[in-house]
């Protein structure tokens, strides 16, 4: 059914408001149709189960209860999404290539950190924010342009670290690592993990937690000690704080053995029924995997070509039938023209696709890649 009015976090959005004829609007139908689904609020969905398990951890281990939000509107201002968390004006994440803009001042949040400042200003000192987040990206089994994050935030007052003999920053960093190691143990049982130093504009120091899974280190969250500037601007001048943002799909794929990120969106009863108990501890049993079908296409790119734009076109046509879009060849000739060859993997998780169906999809992809991206097919 075509949805024409959506109610999000108490705000009504007419479809035309989102998809109006605005050159700064890069939100396609495939994304618009995901707004308001809120998979993380379904108790019998792997994302809801995971959210509830993380809530349990915080409820059990902290007498100072964390305030929980899972219904904040995903449409936020550029200021909330970027400026309020100190993302520099020229940071790539602000580009139209990486972020969905509804208009020049409004985006689909690309992280739950977009809510840090407003919640601090409202006086919250311990909070968890769960929500759908949106990023333009390439296509493979662990990337989907809509996914879910949980943000955690904790503010300390001076008496809390002064007693420890540590400075505020070291105290917060230590507390943060202990909290998240405990969470990983709560979810996974004994598990091998490691901390990796990294950079975020809103925390310093910043870390990533990786978990050893199926012979690989998998990044599951980003975190750090909140930049003093954020606290200062929001009425917490004499405090320190930590924050984390974890990717629910990544964790859920590991926890429940879910092999492809598209499955989270599936209404196939063979998927949904496996989570009907609403509990941790089940391992997903894949229903027979249908064979993928590969189609290659080569074209000469232009200066404005990006892989994210290509993936948006492919998804617009094939929807969740596309499993992966991968660059398999790339060369520049003597005249300076650059050619890319992409391999598209089509596969349904629910049924086998006919040759005819795939050929039709590929034909439309070729046409639109040419007309929308202005590349020259070879
Ligand atoms: N917002 C970061 C991301 O989406 C994660 C993060 C949250 C990092 C809070 C540090 C603190 O990648």
Briefly, what is this?
The protein has helices at residues 15-18, 29-32, 46-61, 78-81, 116-121, 158-162, 168-188, 228-233, 248-256, 269-272, 307-318, 355-373, and strands at residues 5-8, 11-14, 67-69, 75-77, 101-103, 106-108, 126-134, 146-156, 193-200, 203-213, 216-226, 240-247, 293-300, 322-332, 338-346, 376-377. The protein has 378 residues and is α+β, with helices and mostly antiparallel strands.
Percent in strands: 25-35%
CATH class of the largest domain: Alpha Beta
- Spatial order of strands in the largest sheet: 3-7-8-12-11-10-9
- Elements, N to C (H/E): EEHHHEEHEEHEEHHEEEHEHHEHEEHE
Q: Please mark out the parts with pLDDT under 50 across 5 or more consecutive residues, or reply none.
A: 16-20
Task: Please give the count of helices.
Answer: 12
Characterize the overall form. globular
**CATH architecture classification of the largest domain:** 2-Layer Sandwich
Layout of strands and helices, then pairs:
Blueprint (H helix, E strand, L loop, with lengths): L4 E4 L2 E4 H4 L10 H4 L13 H16 L5 E3 L5 E3 H4 L19 E3 L2 E3 L7 H6 L4 E9 L11 E11 L1 H5 L5 H21 L4 E8 L2 E11 L2 E11 L1 H6 L6 E8 H9 L12 H4 L20 E8 L6 H12 L3 E11 L5 E9 L8 H19 L2 E2 L1
Parallel strand pairs: 3-7
Antiparallel strand pairs: 1-2, 4-6, 5-6, 7-8, 8-12, 9-10, 10-11, 11-12, 13-15, 13-16, 14-15
Helix pairs in contact: 3-7, 3-9, 11-12
Bound molecules: phenylalanine (PHE).
């Amino acid at each position: 059914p075509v949805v024409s009015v959506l109610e999000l976090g108490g705000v009504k959005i007419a479809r035309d408001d989102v998809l109006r004829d605005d050159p700064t609007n890069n939100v396609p139908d495939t994304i618009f149709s995901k707004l308001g689904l809120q998979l993380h609020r379904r108790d019998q969905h792997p994302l809801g189960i995971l959210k509830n398990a993380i809530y349990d951890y915080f409820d059990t281990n902290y007498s100072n209860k964390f305030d929980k939000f899972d219904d904040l509107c995903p449409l936020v201002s550029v200021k909330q999404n970027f400026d309020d968390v100190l993302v520099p004006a020229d940071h790539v994440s602000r580009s139209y290539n990486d972020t969905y803009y509804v208009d020049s001042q409004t985006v689909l949040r690309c992280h739950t950190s977009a809510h840090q400042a407003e919640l601090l200003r409202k006086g919250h000192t311990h909070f968890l924010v769960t929500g759908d987040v949106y990023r333009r990206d390439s296509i493979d089994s662990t990337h989907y342009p809509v996914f879910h994050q949980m943000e955690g935030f904790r503010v300390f007052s001076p008496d809390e670290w002064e007693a420890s003999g540590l400075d505020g920053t070291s105290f917060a960093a230590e507390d943060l690592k202990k909290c998240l190691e405990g969470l990983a143990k709560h979810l996974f049982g004994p598990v091998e993990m490691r901390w990796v130093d990294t950079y975020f504009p809103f925390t310093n120091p910043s870390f990533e937690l990786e978990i050893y899974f199926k012979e690989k280190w998998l990044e599951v969250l980003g975190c750090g000690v909140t930049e003093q500037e954020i606290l200062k601007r929001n009425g917490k001048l004499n405090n320190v704080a930590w924050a984390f943002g974890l990717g629910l799909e990544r964790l859920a794929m590991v926890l429940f053995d879910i092999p492809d990120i598209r499955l989270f969106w599936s209404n196939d009863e063979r998927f949904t029924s496996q989570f009907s108990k609403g509990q941790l501890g089940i391992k997903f049993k894949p229903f027979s995997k249908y064979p993928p079908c590969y189609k290659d296409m080569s074209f000469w790119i232009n200066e404005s070509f990006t892989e994210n734009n290509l993936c948006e076109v492919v998804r617009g046509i094939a929807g969740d039938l596309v499993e992966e879009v991968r660059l398999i060849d790339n060369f520049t000739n003597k005249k300076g023209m650059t050619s890319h060859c992409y391999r598209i993997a089509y596969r349904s998780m629910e049924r086998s696709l006919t040759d005819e169906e795939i050929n039709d999809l590929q034909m439309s992809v070729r046409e639109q890649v040419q007309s929308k991206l202005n590349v020259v097919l070879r």
